[in-house]
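Example 9 (inverse folding). The structure is encoded as follows.
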């Protein structure tokens, strides 16, 4: 029997600083074919010790690719003069270009002053739409919170367009960064949160505040049919999912998509991520993607339709 003599593949992953331990654990549990090789803040590499038997797409990363070589910038450029994205781990974008879904894209990542990685990734839903998965969004001064960026980054990552005039239900809407982003897109928003909403949201005629916790909220008090669901509560995932189940059940006929942020309130939750995705499936939602966004802290987004 012939043996595969080709050198082993290495993969690199970019995650938000602070999420390295989640990614490492996720790979250990879900992709045992990959052995940890190296990490620095926001960047990890793994060696393929056995053939990967499934599509690679960990939740706790923004972007990943297949390692080709590393060295100084000059060494890498001397062997590759073609088009490549070029950026640093701190988010400086030195070179970029337009590519299409399905393209294999080369990239040079500045990991430190004298260490550069050269690799490639296949562009598409499983990988980031921006170099390194860094955000291209700008937080407006008047946005009530940084959660504004989660809406913009989430739409961009999923390639989803929210048409003006649609209605979004946001659970955990205070102080209003995400609501403000949705209102700016021309959506009508109904927010559920016992906390105060910023005046920039309250004064907008397209916003309705249901100032109660989700446990006390009755879906019959919704003023409109809901096309988009946003959830961002500071509750453990089990609590968030339990509370949104009754809402999803009621709004499913008109629902086009759900952006659900789940908080990693403790490290042990990594092993439960597949179960969370399963629970959403049982609610009748089709999970399209689960990923970390550049605007996330210890949390991740599940986008479902
Ligand atoms: C991370 S903040 C949300 C940020 C907000 N989406 C924004 O864009 O500014 C979490 C919110 O969840 C809300 N929350 C926590 N438990 C809740 C519950 N049971 N029902 C409704 N909201 C809840 C909190 O009041 C808090 O405002």
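The amino acid assigned to each position is listed next.
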């Amino acid at each position: 029997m012939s043996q595969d003599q080709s050198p082993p593949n290495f993969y690199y992953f970019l995650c938000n600083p602070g999420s390295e331990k989640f990614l490492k654990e996720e790979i250990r549990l879900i992709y045992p074919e990959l052995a940890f090789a190296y990490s620095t803040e926001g960047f990890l590499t793994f060696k393929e010790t056995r053939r990967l038997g499934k599509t690679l797409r960990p939740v706790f990363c923004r972007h990943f690719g297949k390692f080709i070589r590393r060295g100084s910038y000059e060494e890498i450029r001397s062997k590759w003069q073609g088009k490549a994205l070029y950026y640093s781990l701190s988010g400086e974008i030195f070179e970029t270009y337009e590519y299409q879904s399905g393209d294999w894209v080369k990239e040079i990542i500045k990991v430190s002053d004298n260490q550069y990685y050269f690799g490639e990734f296949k562009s598409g839903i499983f990988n980031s739409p921006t170099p390194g998965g860094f955000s291209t969004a700008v937080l407006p001064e008047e946005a009530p919170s940084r959660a504004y960026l989660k809406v913009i980054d989430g739409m961009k990552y999923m390639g989803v367009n929210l048409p003006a005039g649609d209605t979004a239900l946001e659970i955990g809407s205070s102080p209003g960064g995400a609501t403000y982003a949705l209102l700016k897109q021309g959506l009508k928003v109904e927010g559920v949160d016992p906390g105060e909403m910023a005046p920039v949201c309250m004064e907008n005629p397209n916003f309705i505040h249901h100032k109660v916790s989700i446990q006390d909220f009755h879906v019959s008090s919704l003023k409109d049919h809901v096309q988009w669901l946003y959830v961002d509560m500071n509750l453990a995932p089990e609590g968030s999912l339990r509370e949104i189940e009754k809402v999803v059940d009621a709004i499913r006929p008109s629902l086009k998509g759900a952006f659900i942020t789940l908080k990693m309130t403790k490290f042990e939750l990594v092993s439960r991520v597949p179960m969370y995705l399963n629970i959403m499936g049982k609610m009748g939602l089709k999970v399209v993607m689960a990923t970390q966004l550049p605007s996330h802290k210890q949390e991740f987004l599940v986008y479902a339709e």
